[in-house]
TrEMBL record:
<dbReference type="InterPro" id="IPR036179">
    <property type="entry name" value="Ig-like_dom_sf"/>
</dbReference>
<keyword id="KW-0732">Signal</keyword>
<feature type="signal peptide">
    <location>
        <begin position="1"/>
        <end position="35"/>
    </location>
</feature>
<protein>
    <recommendedName>
        <fullName>Fibronectin type-III domain-containing protein</fullName>
    </recommendedName>
</protein>
<feature type="domain" description="Fibronectin type-III">
    <location>
        <begin position="149"/>
        <end position="244"/>
    </location>
</feature>
<dbReference type="InterPro" id="IPR013783">
    <property type="entry name" value="Ig-like_fold"/>
</dbReference>
<dbReference type="InterPro" id="IPR003961">
    <property type="entry name" value="FN3_dom"/>
</dbReference>
<dbReference type="InterPro" id="IPR036116">
    <property type="entry name" value="FN3_sf"/>
</dbReference>
Length: 394
């Protein structure tokens, strides 16, 4: 009779013909962990066991090294420890000297199956599992281990609403197929979602528009997964802020004033007032000017003020001109707002107000000569004359 025997999964039927089921093992993991139960399985690859013998396979957990005992006597010459193969060690009993039927076999699985890695315990089934062994039969077992946890997890914001998660693969046995499972936690709400299984050691997490709220931190826990089950421990990232574009600028108000005390300089200052867009990151502002009939030009802009009253200031505009001004914001991810604000601004002749001249176009008080000096127009102030003065054209 040919059968497959599982030790450690909680299934003890001698007629079992299928490998251990991963879902069942995963369901049992919380109980195993809480009871500090072992983390390794013994899984026979090929067992030929005709009726007529009473041989038991027993997992012993009180030995630090790998030993096989037959009738409580440790035998090395009758035990062949094969090389590392797919998902575990291949252990063989038999060889030139046949193992007699009725022999009691005790297997001790090592507490340090993975190289340079310590394992606290060994997964054993309650009580020995018995099967029949024919004289001269060879029994081959594979020792499977739950995978180790992945290495360091890093999270980088690559694009708006995207986080790139990478991790270091754990040590694994040759031929062992490792995949990964991720838990994503929104630190602001505590909401957790699972992703996987993933075959690569990196993942791009896309945050939906519905979830894309500014200033939400996200952390990632990465588990390893093999044919046996999930790693008992995970590797976790530090919470990371996902990249997001700044919010809209909203309404922008404009104000134009004269820029220079020099009469020959008729340039003006354009001030655009707005509220700072919502953003978790520092913002940069760009102002694009387009003179009527001319090309667009990105001009330097200085932004000052508080979050509730930001002022963008630009100089060098010409009088008697019509401009289209577009103000936009971006953060260091270089993603501008969806709706930059465009405002139409017309400039005529600027007024310069002074107590002596009043609001007269392009005029400035000359304290030395006691007169209003105006560009295009000269206004002479005559002291001692009542009223607002007299205008003298030159």
């Amino acid at each position: 009779m040919k059968m497959r025997l599982v030790v450690g999964s909680g299934l003890s039927s001698p007629a079992l013909t299928t490998p251990p089921l991963l879902p069942l093992l995963l369901l049992a993991l919380p109980l195993l962990v809480s009871a500090q139960m072992p983390v390794f399985l013994v899984y026979p690859e090929n067992v030929t066991a005709p009726l007529g013998s009473n041989v038991s396979l027993e997992c012993v957990t009180d030995q630090p090294e790998l030993v096989w005992r037959i009738n409580d006597r440790q035998l090395f010459d009758e035990v062949a420890i094969g090389s590392l193969q797919q998902n575990g060690f291949i252990l063989e009993v038999g060889g030139p000297e046949a193992v007699p039927g009725g022999t009691r076999i005790t297997i001790t699985i090592p507490g340090t199956l993975h190289v340079n890695e310590s394992v606290e315990a060994i997964l054993c089934q309650a009580g020995p599992t018995q099967f029949d062994l024919q004289d001269g039969e060879t029994i081959t077992f594979t020792v499977y281990g739950l995978p180790l946890a992945p290495g360091e997890v890093e999270v980088v914001g690559e694009r708006v609403h995207q986080l790139r998660v990478t991790w270091t693969p754990p040590f694994s046995l040759p031929g062992e197929l490792i995949s990964y499972s991720l838990l994503v936690t929104d630190e602001a709400t505590g909401f957790t979602s699972s992703l996987g299984p993933l075959n690569d050691t990196s993942f791009t997490h896309q945050i939906s528009e519905r979830q894309a709220l500014d200033c939400h931190l996200y952390s990632f826990s990465v588990f390893s997964l093999n044919d046996v089950g999930l790693s008992l421990n995970s590797s976790s990232s530090t919470p990371a802020l996902h990249p997001s574009a700044p919010g809209p600028l909203g309404a922008v108000t404009t104000e134009v004033s004269h820029n220079s005390q020099q009469l020959s300089d008729s340039r003006a200052v354009l001030r655009l007032s707005f509220q700072r867009p919502e953003s978790c990151f520092p913002l940069n502002y760009t102002l694009t000017l387009s003179e009527e009939g001319g090309p667009e030009e990105v001009v330097p802009v200085q932004v000052t003020g508080s979050e509730s009253a930001m002022v963008a200031e630009v100089t060098g505009l010409k009088e008697n001109s019509h401009y289209s001004a577009t103000l936009s914001a971006s953060n260091h991810f270089q993603f501008s707002v969806d709706d930059p604000v465009t405002t139409e601004v017309s400039f005529g002749a600027w007024s310069h107000w002074s107590p002596e001249c009043g609001s007269v176009p392009l005029c400035q008080w000359d304290s030395q000569d006691h007169m209003c000096l105006c560009h295009r127009l000269s206004l002479l102030w005559l002291p001692g004359v009542s009223g607002s003065g007299q205008l003298h054209y030159h």
